[in-house]
Design a protein that fits this description.
Blueprint: E1 13-17, H1 28-41, E2 46-50, H2 54-67, E3 71-76, H3 78-88, E4 95-99, H4 105-109, H5 116-125, E5 127-136, E6 139-141, E7 144-148, H6 149-156, H7 159-165, H8 168-180, E8 184-190, E9 193-199, E10 201-205, E11 209-212, E12 215-220, E13 232-237, H9 242-253, E14 263-268, E15 270-276, E16 280-283, E17 286-290, E18 293-306
Parallel strand pairs: 1-2, 1-3, 3-4
Antiparallel strand pairs: 5-6, 5-18, 7-10, 7-16, 8-9, 8-15, 10-13, 11-12, 13-14, 15-18, 16-17
């Protein structure tokens, strides 16, 4: 991002590229050429910067926000988008999404097209809207954080497994953990209420919609979740056997959350999650150790570009 340009930074797009995007099946040079061609076809100035890890990506995003780029384009999966949003939080610089990841859940929630050319079109021609972010154990997230089963699934879906199986890595890991992993005794403190329950997982969601990769199924894990309500959604799933797991999946796919004591849902501005024994946690799909976890909402803390 150094050197003089014909166009000022305020007119330029900074493309933050995850070189391992797409499970590493497409080389970074190919990704750069495709991205460069798509932006050049739109007639807009741009810079492409590869980030080897999230720390480097965060620094690139922060510098781009300080310099006042027109937008930061996260070219990668949910982790890349989350890093870009953390980098621009509290500034006027928006984030656009070009989905190259394994799951691309944030792109799904914001109705971003899956094709490169169409997502670049949205980056250039879309509208800017402000969104809530949230924070878990000091780390900003955009989608959701979780404790228990979902976090263990993320941890077991290794980079090597995802490179071989793609989204199938999550399915494999999920089936293995559903069969073998018992629940835990959770204590959840949310604003002025406390819940004690034996459960498989607790989600803290800023957005509610999850896709199942290539499968024609979408799950609304948090029925009332909104990026603009100043609240985080707490979803507790407490099946005790495989038939109850199947019943919960059936209800979630049909957006039927009421009337089942194995699903507990409420909203809060802050939440603390403890578990006995301690369980794995994840933040926007990345493993982050074990409970306890504390989360809170940051209302309208970032801006994102969505379709008109």
């Amino acid at each position: 991002m150094s050197g003089a340009h014909l166009y000022p930074d305020s007119e330029r797009f900074l493309v933050l590229l995850n070189p391992g995007a797409g499970g590493g099946t497409t080389g970074p040079e190919t990704l750069r050429r495709r991205l460069g061609g798509a932006f050049a076809a739109r007639g807009v100035p741009f810079d492409i910067v590869e980030a080897a890890d999230s720390e480097e990506g965060l620094e690139v995003a922060r510098q781009a926000a300080e310099r006042g780029y027109r937008a930061i384009v996260a070219a990668g999966g949910d982790g890349t988008v989350s890093v870009a949003l953390r980098g621009v939080a509290g500034t006027a610089v928006p984030v656009a999404i070009v989905p190259f990841g394994t799951a691309n859940q944030l792109a799904l929630n914001f109705d971003i097209p899956t094709s490169l050319e169409d997502s670049v079109r949205v980056a250039v021609e879309g509208r800017v809207t402000s969104i809530d972010l949230a924070e878990a154990n000091g780390e900003t997230f955009a989608l959701m954080a979780g404790a228990g089963l979902d976090a263990q699934v993320m941890a077991d879906a290794t980079a090597e497994l995802k490179s071989r199986l793609g989204f199938g890595a999550y399915i494999y890991s999920g089936l293995k953990n559903v069969i073998n992993r018992p629940g835990a005794d959770f204590r959840i403190t949310a604003d002025d209420q406390e819940v004690k329950v034996k459960a498989s997982m607790v989600l803290v969601a800023n957005a509610g919609q999850l896709g199942a990769g290539p499968l024609p199924v979408e799950f609304r894990m948090a029925p009332g979740a909104s990026f603009q309500d100043g609240l985080i959604d707490v979803c507790i799933y407490a099946p005790s056997n495989l038939p109850e797991v199947a019943r919960i999946i059936w209800r979630v796919t049909r957006n039927r959350f009421s009337g089942d004591d194995k699903i507990i849902y409420f909203q809060a501005r802050s939440v603390r999650i403890e578990a006995d024994p301690p369980v794995a946690i994840e933040i926007d799909g990345d493993p982050r150790g074990e409970t306890p976890m504390e989360a809170k909402v940051s209302p309208l803390a970032a801006r994102i570009i969505v379709p008109r």
